[in-house]
Amino acid sequence: MTPGPGGAAILRRSIQVTCSASVGFYTFLYGLQQPVAALYALFTPIALGLLSTIPGTGRQQAWITLRTLPFGVVLVALGTALAVSTAAAVVGMLIVGFLLSFTVVAGPRTAGPAPGLQLLYILACFPPYAPQTLGARLTGGAVGVVLLSLCQVFVLSGPPATSYRIVLADALETAAAAVVHPARVSVARLRDLSEGMRLSQVSPGERPTGPGRRDRALAQAGAAVRRVLDQLASRSTTSAPPGTTPRTDRSSAVLRERVARTCEDTAAALRAGERPPTADALDGAIRQFQAERIRRAADQGEPGADTDVLRRQAAELTLAESTWIAVTAVGVSTAGRRTSPLRPRELFWYADLPTTQLWARRIVGNATHRSVWFQNAVRVACGLAIARLVAGTLDLTHGFWVLLTVLTLGRTTVGATWRAVRQALIGNLVGAVAAGALLIALGRHLDAYAVLLVPGMLIAFALGPRLGIAYAQGLFTLVVTLAFAQITPTNWRLSEARIVDVVTGSVIGLLCGLLAWPAGARKEVHRTMAGLLRSCGTLVPDTVEALLAPSTAPSPPATLPTLRHLRLAESAYAQFRSEPPTAWEGAQADWHGVLVVAYHTVLGAQRLPCFEAPLADVPPDACAWVRGTAAELTTDADRIATCFTSDERPAPGRSPPGPPLPEHHPAMPTLIDLEVWLTAIGHQLARIEDSVGPKA
User: Fold this and answer.
1) Can you tell me the distance from the alpha carbon of 406 to that of 506, in angstroms, rounded to the nearest whole number?
2) CB atoms within 10 A of CB 246
3) What's the pLDDT tens digit per position in 42-58?
4) pLDDT given for residue 149 in this prediction
5) Which residues have C-beta within 8 Å of that of residue 677, sequence separation ≥ 6?
6) In the chain, pLDDT over 90 holds for what percent of residues?
7) What are the C-alpha distances in Å from 567 to residues 105, 163, 209, 365, 654?
8) Are 653 and 684 in contact (CB under 8 A)?
9) pTM here?
């Protein structure tokens, strides 16, 4: 679960929003006598600074905020035009609500400002229909965006975030040291670096989660570097039996030296912001190493005695291949679109595709009712459209608060929504009583409201997120009361209107949560993980057949269908982990283990046919074992997947496969690598099967 912002970040953000909102509000209201522009200058920084989660710090946040200005202008103009009727406003709300909520597929940098842009459209599409005020609305909104971006740069901008490229450089440098001098780098250091590269541990503004070529390449490089670190850590914890010395050879030493040098050169290029050297030298070393393995296997006289050596060589080869993938992916991230495909194409399918096609693949891949991102977008859009219909039909005073309630209190499960609504109602009730008393006491003394607004905003924006929903809603009620009391003549009935609107919005939010996927990601994580396991199960025999095919250049099987299942499962799992614990009671399966199996299966399916020598004249017993093991793994994966969507615990499966190759054969190194891959999948499936319990 990604941690929320700390106390220092909340205080910094509250000061930035208070400064930008108060400067614009007071300038337009008292200096230029334009109350409409003042209202938009006040709510724009609140929408983009508080309601939105814009990643990064300082200049990065300011740049993202400024980029929202054209979209904000379009949405305010569209909302102003569609306010002509309730029907037009509802249709517009449905479309805009879905599109803005669905921007989550583009990553946090794009999706961060979406809730704030939703609020700007909500504010503009409510009655009265006043197209003559469009200029004032756009002016106030534009000034609010500019003031907020200036405050993000010059007012407590905060420490700069560590870029993902630097994280990669640190990991590669440590990996190079561990390859050359294993005793000098502790296993704990390798594990810590590996954990630190998880996207949940990286600043949201630096996470390579976008659909473009650069982000896809950096994400692939990060996964490969994590695999390098984990392999080095596992090798460090594996020692030879007492009284023995592991057998090594010169070709292994040469390959390790090339891996270390490649890691060092790539890390230096990442720190300098330059394009890294190509991985051609490492690729040549890998192929030479594999050819030497095959030659030695053909010449060796005691095949049983060399089996352990071959397995250690398989580990060296896997380490080098993971490094090659990482370095090549880093190169793709710094280059433009390639004019010729990068080989092997299956590993880097995105490298020669146009940006528009990459975006289309991400959108189409999530344009399904099985995607939790699609589900959330539909839930939010329907809730906002219904709220706009109710507010417009009943002519509720300050009806935009109904939609604001739906937008801010909606959760992915009906239980979590009810808890948020319950706390919000208590907070709004207390805040409304306090605001009503304040209005009665101060009357029409505008100077008193003007003096209280700034400290009120600072307290509400700093303490509300820290103390919880009830405090945030109650304090925000006081803030909007202080602001509206200066714009229009107001009495204690403003508090009454806010209570009515909040209750209405809460009921609509609860109904949407109850009717639209009320269980959140709990059911979807079962369904998507089952589909992912089945896809992996079909990929295993396809990979085996690609290696056993009588061809001098085996082609890897199609992994894109499995990758699509993997992306859906990852998004469901990410939302599943962010939901309250009550949403996943009874779910005992090792979901993260399923993702590990998928990564391992896809990587083997991509790498084995690309790097291994083709299997020619395979002995019948070895061929039968390989095909039989692949078929058994497919059956195991299907059995476990069926359990995910049923109420029964799976029957005990078979034991993980053992060493299958007791006899000498020239192609033994490739078969050993294939055996290691199949055996690892079998062990991982067995662990997942042990974790599966009866479904609640």
Assistant:
1) 6
2) 11
3) 989 998 888 888 877 77
4) 92
5) 600, 604, 608
6) 8
7) 11, 23, 11, 8, 29
8) no
9) 0.77
And the tokens for 39? 């209202």
pLDDT of residue 297: 65
Question: Distance between CA 549 and CA 286 in Å, rounded?
Answer: 22
Cα distance between residue 77 and residue 74, in whole Å: 5
Query: Is the separation of the CB atoms in 474 and 434 below 8 Å?
Result: yes
- In angstroms, what CA-CA distances link 263 with 70, 150, 170, 180? 42, 40, 10, 11
What is the token pair recorded at 195?
């954990």
Concatenating the DSSP letter of every residue in 468-480 gives -HHHHHHHHHHHH
Which of these, 133, 18, 11, 150, lies nearest to 79 by C-alpha position? 133
The candidate with the shortest Cα–Cα distance to 307, out of 628, 612, 676, 681, is 676
Residue type at 456 in one-letter notation: G
Cα dihedral across residues 229, 108, 47, 389: positive or negative: negative
Confidence band (pLDDT; 50, 70, 90) for 239? very low
Say how many C-beta atoms besides its own lie within 10 A of residue 203's C-beta: 18
Q: What is the pLDDT of residues 366-406, one digit of tens each?
A: 788 778 788 888 888 888 888 888 877 877 666 667 777 77
Q: Which residue has the higher pLDDT, 661 or 62?
A: 62
Q: What is d(CA 117, CA 224) in angstroms, rounded to the nearest whole number?
A: 37
Helical H segments across 68-113, by residue range: 69-82, 86-102, 108-111
- 650: its two tokens: 């799976």
State the helix-helix crossing angle for 372-394 and 521-548, rounded to 10 degrees. Answer: 150
